[in-house]
């Protein structure tokens, strides 16, 4: 929205292209990344949270398979390239300010986490008797043996 | 896992405290933040993606209501402080490497997005006839009028 072309009186009602438009214009952060939330298309649970740079986002859209940018390894990463557990993207959404995407996927091999669990979120944050945070395993069954998959 | 105290032969099997332990030890990034995915406890859809610093995470755990750290405003932010649309946290989970949390919330007012929608993810990324990305409104009904809520 440009202040020079939009009269102040109507500014509040004028559509903001980023939030209301039909053009995908990702707001990459200083590191060139947007956040990606990946959920299971069937069950709906959050499988993982990762990041995409411009190339990962483009490849995901073009191929229909999830590509990410690994911050720790500093490189593009096709999900499943080592494990074979590819994610087929059934739907992609973008959020209001376009700094995050949400993909609903069909998870190859049934497990998204490198530890062998279906989801990376296999621990619940509870509180102990003193009110301090304590993690409890939940949905933590291993569907594969990482030592055998990542060799 | 310390290479100096863990024999190489058993290193692969040794539990990694961050991934397998019961201690919450968030891996904050260079800006002091972890990513937070917020889903609707009832329907399961992703409502929003935001960030938490140490204080926001602690306040969320202590109060049972969602607190975030706004990168754009550079300050702690209690969800609903302006709109009244507080998020009651029914469950919190942490991911494998503890750089992201997932909270399942009961969304006060029924809408999490500042645009008035239930979810910030109200646009699907489709492709046009040329294969270029094109956004389509989906679940985009406004549940409140932002102009009346944020004054």
Low-confidence stretches of chain A: 1-15
The overall strand count of chain A is 8
Rg measurement of chain A, Å: 19 Å
- Estimated share of beta-strand residues of chain A: 25-35%
- What is the CA–CA distance across the termini of chain A? 51 Å
| Largest interface, chains and sizes | A-B, 46 and 46 residues
Give the strand line-up of the largest sheet of chain A. Answer: 2-1-6-5
Count of helical stretches of chain A: 3
Give the overall form of chain A: globular
User: Which structural class do the helices and strands of chain A define?
Assistant: mainly beta
Percentage of residues assigned to helices of chain A = 10-25%
Largest sheet of chain A: 4 strands, mixed
- Mean of pLDDT of chain A: 90
By oligomeric state, this entry counts as homodimer
Order of helices and strands of chain A: HEEHEEEEEEH
Structure characterization notes:
2 copies of one chain form a homodimer. A 4-stranded mixed beta sheet of chain A has the order 2-1-6-5. In chain A, strands 3-4 form a two-stranded antiparallel sheet. In chain A, strands 7-8 form a two-stranded antiparallel ribbon. In chain A, strand 3 and strand 4 (75-78) form a beta hairpin. The first copy, chain A, has helices at 17-20, 54-63, 146-149, and strands spanning 34-40, 46-52, 67-70, 75-78, 87-94, 100-107, 123-127, 133-137. Chain A is mainly beta. Chain A is built from 3 helices and 8 strands; from the N terminus they run H-E-E-H-E-E-E-E-E-E-H.
């Amino acid at each position: 929205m440009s202040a020079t072309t939009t009269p102040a009186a109507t500014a509040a009602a004028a559509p903001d292209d980023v939030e209301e438009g039909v053009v995908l214009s990702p707001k990459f952060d200083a590191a060139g990344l947007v956040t990606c939330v990946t959920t299971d298309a069937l069950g709906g649970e959050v499988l993982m949270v990762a990041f995409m740079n411009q190339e990962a986002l483009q490849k995901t859209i073009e191929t229909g398979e999830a590509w990410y940018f690994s911050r720790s390894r500093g490189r593009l990463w096709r999900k499943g390239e080592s494990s074979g557990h590819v994610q087929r993207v059934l739907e992609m959404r973008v959020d209001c300010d376009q700094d995050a995407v949400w993909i609903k996927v069909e998870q190859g091999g049934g497990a998204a986490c490198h530890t062998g669990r279906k989801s990376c979120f296999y621990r619940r944050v509870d509180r102990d008797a003193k009110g301090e945070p304590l993690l409890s395993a939940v949905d933590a069954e291993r569907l594969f043996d990482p030592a055998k998959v990542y060799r």
